[in-house]
Design brief:
Blueprint lengths: L16 E4 L6 H9 L3 E6 L23 H6 L3 E5 L5 H11 L4 E4 L5 H4 L4 H7 L4 E6 L14 H8 L22 H24 L4 E5 H6 L5 H8 L20 E3 L5 E4 L7 H13 L9 H9 L5 H15 L3 H10 L4 E3 L3 H4 L3 H6 L5 E4 L4 E4 L25 H8 L4 H9 L4
Parallel strand pairs: 1-2, 1-4, 2-3, 4-5, 5-6
Antiparallel strand pairs: 7-8, 8-9, 10-11
Helix pairs in contact: 1-7
Length: 424
């Protein structure tokens, strides 16, 4: 798309300084801020960030610099190693807080307070400081001390109860993969952080942003909560489509080349789209029986069940099965039907819309490997303050000298002593 050179444009958050102490539960917040220009410094334990030890690993070689999960979630960040449980480590963190705008953390509630590093202690040092805490259940309430994981959050937050299969008898709830629970909490965490930044810029006052993944997920249960609140009814799980109070027909169809089509809006809900679909099917000599006026009346009336609807769906199913996935996908979209191919993540790597027009997969250099790799890119394109991939995820402790020596003024002898005493 046309825009001025993003390499010379300012980035939206380039004046924001962030200290990132969050583990895998909250690491996506730091990535979003860093990708929009913030200086985000990972404050890692000496053994490395927990995500460094989670696979898959580059070339299947477990190493704290090889985790692909860490690579993605740590783009544009810096890395220092610091044991904040030691007296000197806590002192160094407090020195860094003096110049920070935001601290991100995801420790168990009360843990940082036990080290003298909680919000009250740090805000006394820097009243403009914003601390964002991303935890399974938040800082207060009877659940605050419960242990959590993405699986626990998806289960207790509600989404899992609405996800699963209706074509398998007595199928249990299913959790979708990809750490969606953590990602949801982190999205709210980023929104909360930026809202606090705006307030701080207006008033000069920082604040504590308490993000509960449990509550964030409870905001995403779609129709489940309102149906229970108003009617005390529980929607049923349905394969590959919305849950519902009553069963609805499947939206997945098999094309001639064996691919799955997600055929939402079958039958079409508007007469215009119905007429277009019948005309398309008629071109392929497959509209037999569907040109009767009674079907137009049923579409106009919004009828979704009955023998006529069963016949209609049978004819459309046969039509989809007679065409390739691309023919059905593009043909359906052409007549304004929300139909699409169900793709694997790997297939999207070759999508010309992503790759060529949107530039969604930037190449990121890894100098130590003398290679570059395609990464998922910007979730949005900004015309004036662009997202930009400035550097790959940091190696463990890669920025220790820059931060401790050049910026904090520690002598070489002091750094050697800190290393020997296992502080850095």
């Amino acid at each position: 798309m046309s825009m001025s050179n993003p390499q010379v444009q300012p980035m939206a958050l380039e004046d924001l300084v962030v200290l990132d102490l969050a583990d895998e539960k909250g690491m996506y917040v730091g990535k979003m801020l860093a990708d929009m220009g913030a200086r985000v410094t990972l404050v890692e334990p000496l053994a490395g960030h927990p995500a460094r030890h989670i696979g898959p690993f580059y070339q299947d070689k477990p190493d704290y610099n090889n985790s692909l999960l860490f690579w993605y979630h740590s783009t544009n960040k810096e890395s220092i190693t610091l044991d904040i449980t030691t007296t000197k480590g806590a002192q160094l963190l407090k020195e860094m807080v003096k110049k920070a705008d935001v601290v991100l953390e995801s420790f168990q509630p009360g843990y940082l307070d036990s080290l003298g590093l909680g919000y009250e202690a740090l805000s006394a040092i820097n009243p403009r400081l914003i601390m964002t805490s991303v935890t399974p259940f938040g800082q207060t309430g009877p659940y605050r001390d419960l242990k959590g994981s993405d699986l626990v959050s998806m289960a207790m937050g509600g989404p899992m109860a609405s996800s699963g299969y209706d074509h398998i008898p007595d199928a249990p709830p299913m959790r979708c993969d990809g750490w969606i629970g953590y990602a949801t909490g982190c999205n709210f965490g980023a929104i909360g952080t930026m809202t606090a930044v705006v307030y701080r810029d207006m008033t000069g006052q920082g604040q504590w942003v308490d993000v509960s993944i449990h509550e964030a997920l409870s905001c995403t249960t779609e129709a489940a909560m309102p149906n229970w609140f108003f009617d005390r009814k529980v929607p049923i799980r349905q394969t590959g489509r919305h849950h519902g109070l009553t069963p609805t027909p499947s939206t997945q169809f098999v094309s001639a080349d064996g691919k799955l089509i997600n055929g939402f809006d079958i039958p079409p809900r508007s007469l215009d789209r119905w007429n277009r679909l019948v005309a398309w099917m008629d071109e392929k000599e497959m509209a037999e029986g569907l040109k009767d006026d009674k079907y137009r009346e049923l579409i106009t009336q919004g009828v979704r069940q009955g023998p006529e609807m069963d016949f209609l769906r049978e004819r459309i199913t046969a039509f989809i099965a007679s065409q390739t996935a691309d023919e059905i996908y593009h043909g359906g979209q052409k007549i304004r039907l929300a139909w699409a191919v169900i793709r694997s993540p790997e297939e999207n790597l070759d999508d010309e819309h992503f790759r060529d027009d949107r530039g969604f997969f930037p190449e990121v250099e890894h100098p130590e490997l003398q290679k570059s790799f395609a990464y998922p890119g910007a979730p949005a394109i900004f015309s004036r303050t662009p997202w930009r991939m400035r550097r790959r995820a940091p190696l463990l402790g890669e920025d220790n000298d820059k931060v401790f020596s050049e910026e904090m003024g520690l002598s070489r002898e002091e750094i050697v002593m800190l290393r020997e005493s296992r502080v850095v």
